[in-house]
């Protein structure tokens, strides 16, 4: 079944279609949540809730306004960020650090085996500059707007757009090479 | 007709996948994606890259779908009914349709409302946090101003206390208002005392040397500005600070004399 049909079935509250979409995206979405909350147990719970929210709000997804994955990604990011906001961070300014990927790339080999194997991730990000990795993490995994990213990185908004294009192109090259 | 290549190169599609475009831009991209297969293909490739990256970033877990499936609200499986020709049946159908629409409307409003109240809650917390921060800042500003005014008083004598043998690089300052028997010690130049020890301030008469305890610099590590207020009714000729066991001593341990300074007369 084509993706569009699956989505339209899902919007009609077809559990089977939803199950298929779930298999397509759940690992990714849980992964994104994990890069934000950095606690696997919590991430799994939030991920569970996110997909229930996705189901409950099925009729609110509008295909003419964006990709289905982008829509879920947005719900997941918001849920994860709310979680950070609500717990024990009350006094500090919410600081969404963007060092998840850079951190994995920089840590020593022997730490790798302990949680998950990051060799493929390293291969994928390997040739990317640090500023690329940070930008990708900001825009896709943290939900920074172009404006946010331009302020944090102190580069013009237009540069955010073109740099991101170059970074994603490099990422795609790495992927097809590996 | 748009320049498809330039459009792709502009980087707008990457932002589309990130969900970082305005509503209008989203509609525009979606429309072009329908019109130009190259644009659609590019979007799918970008999405693939992000999917691959997020997949690799995941520790690989996901909650089982069965568990989620159990928590799902039921879809409306029984909304398919045959519509009879008779008026009564049609009216019944209308009633169902109306209540169905009402249910959708209510659900929609409910979510709208929930989202709004979530957002309000978030904003309220943020405001509270900021207010707290402002209050704290005002408080500390007030304290600093009060302190500054106190030590600027014309009756205040400033005594520089220099480091002694046990710690030559230490220093401190005493601001003494003899009229009001106030003594402020600026202890920024003293090292943090070791566990179980505390600094004790002494008023000294020089000839013959007789020390009188003025007080302790308590909770040294947690004091945020390093300035301590003490009361000194003595007719002091010099001030000294020694390191003593917690609680202070009756007489100064002179081997642990950190700083010393004479009151200029």
TrEMBL record, chain A:
<feature type="domain" description="RNA polymerase sigma-70 region 4">
    <location>
        <begin position="126"/>
        <end position="173"/>
    </location>
</feature>
<dbReference type="InterPro" id="IPR007627">
    <property type="entry name" value="RNA_pol_sigma70_r2"/>
</dbReference>
<feature type="domain" description="RNA polymerase sigma-70 region 2">
    <location>
        <begin position="21"/>
        <end position="88"/>
    </location>
</feature>
<dbReference type="InterPro" id="IPR014284">
    <property type="entry name" value="RNA_pol_sigma-70_dom"/>
</dbReference>
<protein>
    <submittedName>
        <fullName>RNA polymerase sigma factor SigK</fullName>
    </submittedName>
</protein>
<dbReference type="InterPro" id="IPR039425">
    <property type="entry name" value="RNA_pol_sigma-70-like"/>
</dbReference>
<dbReference type="InterPro" id="IPR036388">
    <property type="entry name" value="WH-like_DNA-bd_sf"/>
</dbReference>
<dbReference type="Pfam" id="PF04545">
    <property type="entry name" value="Sigma70_r4"/>
</dbReference>
<dbReference type="InterPro" id="IPR013325">
    <property type="entry name" value="RNA_pol_sigma_r2"/>
</dbReference>
<keyword id="KW-0238">DNA-binding</keyword>
<dbReference type="InterPro" id="IPR013324">
    <property type="entry name" value="RNA_pol_sigma_r3/r4-like"/>
</dbReference>
<dbReference type="Pfam" id="PF04542">
    <property type="entry name" value="Sigma70_r2"/>
</dbReference>
<comment type="similarity">
    <text>Belongs to the sigma-70 factor family. ECF subfamily.</text>
</comment>
<keyword id="KW-0805">Transcription regulation</keyword>
<keyword id="KW-0731">Sigma factor</keyword>
<dbReference type="InterPro" id="IPR007630">
    <property type="entry name" value="RNA_pol_sigma70_r4"/>
</dbReference>
<keyword id="KW-0804">Transcription</keyword>
TrEMBL record, chain B:
<keyword id="KW-0472">Membrane</keyword>
<feature type="coiled-coil region">
    <location>
        <begin position="113"/>
        <end position="154"/>
    </location>
</feature>
<dbReference type="InterPro" id="IPR018764">
    <property type="entry name" value="RskA_C"/>
</dbReference>
<protein>
    <recommendedName>
        <fullName>Anti-sigma K factor RskA C-terminal domain-containing protein</fullName>
    </recommendedName>
</protein>
<keyword id="KW-1133">Transmembrane helix</keyword>
<keyword id="KW-0175">Coiled coil</keyword>
<keyword id="KW-0812">Transmembrane</keyword>
<feature type="domain" description="Anti-sigma K factor RskA C-terminal">
    <location>
        <begin position="97"/>
        <end position="253"/>
    </location>
</feature>
<dbReference type="Pfam" id="PF10099">
    <property type="entry name" value="RskA_C"/>
</dbReference>
<feature type="transmembrane region" description="Helical">
    <location>
        <begin position="93"/>
        <end position="111"/>
    </location>
</feature>
């Amino acid at each position: 079944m084509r993706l569009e049909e699956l989505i339209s079935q899902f919007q009609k509250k077809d559990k089977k279609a939803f199950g298929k979409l779930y298999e397509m995206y759940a690992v990714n979405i849980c992964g994104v949540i994990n890069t934000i909350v950095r606690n696997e147990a919590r991430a799994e719970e939030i991920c569970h809730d996110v997909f229930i929210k996705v189901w409950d709000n099925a009729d609110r997804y509008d295909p003419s306004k964006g990709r289905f994955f982008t829509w879920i990604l947005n719900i997941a990011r918001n849920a994860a960020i709310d979680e950070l906001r609500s717990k024990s961070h009350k006094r500090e300014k919410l600081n969404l650090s963007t060092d998840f990927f850079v951190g994995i790339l920089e840590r020593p080999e022997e730490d790798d085996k302990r949680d998950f194997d990051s060799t493929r991730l390293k291969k994928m990000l390997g040739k990317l500059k640090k500023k690329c990795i940070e930008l990708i993490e900001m825009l896709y995994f943290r939900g920074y707007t172009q404006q946010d990213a331009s302020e944090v990185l102190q580069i013009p908004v237009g540069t955010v757009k073109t740099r991101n294009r170059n970074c994603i192109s490099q990422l795609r090259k790495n992927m097809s090479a590996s | 007709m748009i320049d498809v290549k330039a459009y792709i190169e502009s980087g707008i599609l990457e932002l589309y996948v990130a969900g970082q475009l305005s509503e209008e831009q989203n509609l525009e991209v979606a429309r072009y994606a329908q019109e130009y297969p190259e644009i659609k293909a590019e979007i799918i490739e970008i999405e693939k890259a992000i999917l691959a990256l997020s997949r690799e970033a995941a520790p690989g877990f996901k909650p089982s779908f069965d568990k989620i499936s159990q928590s799902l609200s039921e879809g409306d499986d029984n909304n398919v009914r045959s519509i009879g020709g008779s008026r009564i049946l049609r009216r019944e159908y209308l009633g169902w349709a109306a209540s169905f629409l009402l249910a959708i409307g209510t659900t929609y409003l409910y979510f709208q409302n929930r989202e709004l109240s979530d957002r309000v809650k978030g904003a309220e917390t943020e405001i509270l946090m900021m207010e707290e921060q402002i209050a704290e800042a005002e408080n500390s500003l007030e304290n600093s101003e009060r302190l500054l005014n106190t030590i600027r008083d014309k009756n205040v004598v400033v005594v520089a206390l220099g480091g002694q043998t046990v710690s030559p690089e230490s220093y401190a300052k005493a601001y003494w208002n003899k009229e009001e028997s106030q003594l402020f010690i600026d202890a920024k130049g003293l090292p943090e005392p070791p566990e179980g020890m505390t600094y004790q301030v002494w008023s000294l008469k020089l000839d013959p040397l007789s020390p009188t305890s003025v007080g302790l610099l308590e909770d040294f590590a947690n004091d945020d500005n390093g300035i301590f207020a003490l009361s000194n009714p003595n007719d002091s000729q010099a001030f000294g600070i020694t390191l003593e066991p917690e609680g202070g001593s009756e007489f100064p341990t002179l081997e642990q004399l950190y700083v010393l300074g004479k009151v200029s007369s």
